[in-house]
UniProtKB/TrEMBL annotation:
Keywords: Bacterial flagellum biogenesis, Bacterial flagellum protein export, Cell membrane, Cell projection, Chemotaxis, Cilium, Coiled coil, Flagellum, Membrane, Protein transport, Transport. It is found in: Cell membrane. InterPro entries: Flag_assembly_chemotaxis_eff, Flagell_FliJ. It is a peripheral membrane protein. Belongs to the FliJ family. Gene3D superfamilies: 1.10.287.1700. Transmembrane segments: none annotated. One of its GO terms (biological process) is bacterial-type flagellum organization. It comes from Gracilinema caldarium. It holds the Pfam family FliJ. GO terms for cellular component: bacterial-type flagellum; plasma membrane. Residues 19-53 form a coiled coil. It comes from the Bacteria. This is Flagellar FliJ protein.
Length: 146
């Protein structure tokens, strides 16, 4: 019997490639979201420090106003980053869905390949049994003729 050959191997390779690409796209999107979240945390720390600095004794009115303006700028930056985080979260969800679909498509072909390989091995074992039977019945026939 000839070697096992899965006719859809090229399609399986293509689906594996698409799955890897979808996984990389998901990782990039998650990295971007994490970067935005890190910037938001840093911004919160800066705002907390600025708020504490604002009420430090011995500060002039100009310094207090400058700190207030800095806090306002930090708040505006926070709003922009929150919007960016929301958009990045949507992108992550889209990329995750694409990855799940690509993974599912590949798994379907993997299962089909496993099923065909199992069928092939079963047929191979049937052929081996038949060959052994033929050999053993041939040796019996030779032994009875002697």
């Amino acid at each position: 019997m000839k070697r096992f050959r899965f006719n859809l191997d090229k399609l399986l390779e293509l689906r594996q490639y698409y799955e890897r690409e979808a996984e990389l796209a998901l990782a990039r999107a998650m990295g971007e979201l994490q970067s935005i979240q890190d910037r938001l945390e840093k911004l919160a720390e800066e705002r907390s420090e600025a708020a504490a600095e604002r009420f430090r004794p011995g500060r002039s009115v100009a310094q207090i106003q400058a700190t207030d303006l800095y806090i306002l700028r930090l708040d505006k930056t926070k709003e922009v980053l929150l919007e960016a985080a929301a958009k990045a979260e949507l992108v992550v969800q889209e990329k995750r869905q694409a990855y799940v679909e690509a993974s599912r498509d590949r798994k379907v072909l993997d299962k089909l390949k496993e099923k065909r390989l199992k069928e092939y091995k079963y047929q191979l074992s049937l052929e081996e049994i038949k060959t052994v039977d033929d050999i053993s019945s041939g040796s019996r026939a030779r032994n009875t003729n002697i």
